[in-house]
Amino acid sequence: MTVGVAWIRERPNGDELWLASDSRLSGDGYLWDSSPKLFLVPRRDAVAAFSGETAQAYPLLLQIGNAMLGYEPAASGGLEFARLAKHLQRVVNLMMDQLEVDPRVSGSAVAAPFRTLGDVVVLGGYSRAARGFVLRRLHFEQNVGRWVFGRAEGRPSVVGTSKPYKVYGDRQASPKLDYLLLDRLASVGKLGNDEPFAMEPLEAIWDYLSKPAASQRPVPDGQRPPTIGGAPQVVVVRSGAAATPVAVRWQDKDFVLGRQVLPYENLTVPLIVRGEDPPRFQLIAPGAWQPLRADAGGAEPLELDDLIEP
Fold it and tell me: Hey, how many other C-beta atoms are within 10 angstroms of the C-beta on 151?
């Protein structure tokens, strides 16, 4: 399963849209901690994420991207974000209407068709009509029997009206992350007032993923469900700029979108490093950092040419 958070950070020089997620896929007997869960879409000022049944979420996300790529106004931003969400909603419902149960598989082996509480696609981007970033959540609406891109909001009456955010994920992980975020806001005096977010949501998910995995149920305090894990993956969209992956320095290694960075890579993305004292996160500009050496034995790091056959 998945745990993630999306939030809008108000800044004097232009707002920012941030998304952060874990990197673990599980359920088939393997724990895969290098799995992309944040997706750059053809529209430069938008980003998508998911939680839930991976076998259905991945095709939906790929076709969401293809639906933008195949229609120039959707990809370029000429199509208003709200109308784009309606278009993508139709694409998803058409796909799900065509979903059939394999006659060779029956009973409990058949997964629910992306309609449980944790099955969501989160889409964030810039809306001209709203004059700012917005968050939308694709989920199955029981009362209409369709998948709907509705507003994705946390609890403004609790956190404050200037903190748009959405915690998403499975039934075990997402409530705990929401609690950790509220606790973090309370500790810095931002809970229930108009103080905007800084990086409190990233701190909350970072701390959550740092906890040891539980080996029993219910998950004890101070631990995380074993269904989530891996390095945090992060994407930021700034006003007027394109969505940008952010590398993270996690447990003495560098990762980008869940994948460990190879020592010879010279990535043109920023790096975020966690510190103990405020400011708790340091953002290092593209080109101003190099990946930490991940090899263990003193071997020289590979050069890119070493991987190219003559």
Answer: 10
Q: Taking Cα atoms as reference points, which of 196, 192, 274, 190 lies closest to residue 234?
A: 274
The low-confidence residues of the chain, meaning pLDDT below 70, are 106-109, 278-279, 294-310
- Residue 71: which residues within 8 A CB-CB, separation 6 or more? 79, 87
CA pair distance 302, 264, nearest whole angstrom:
6
Q: Which helix (H) or strand (E) holds 7?
A: strand 3-9
What token pair was written down for 163?
Answer: 């903190």
Please report which helix (H) or strand (E) contains residue 235, including its range. strand 233-238
Per-residue pLDDT of 12-56, as tens digits, reads 989 999 999 999 998 778 899 999 999 999 999 999 999 998 889
Predicted TM-score (pTM) of the model is 0.91
- Token pair, residue 116, equals 């449980």
Q: 57, 48 in Cβ contact below 8 A?
A: no
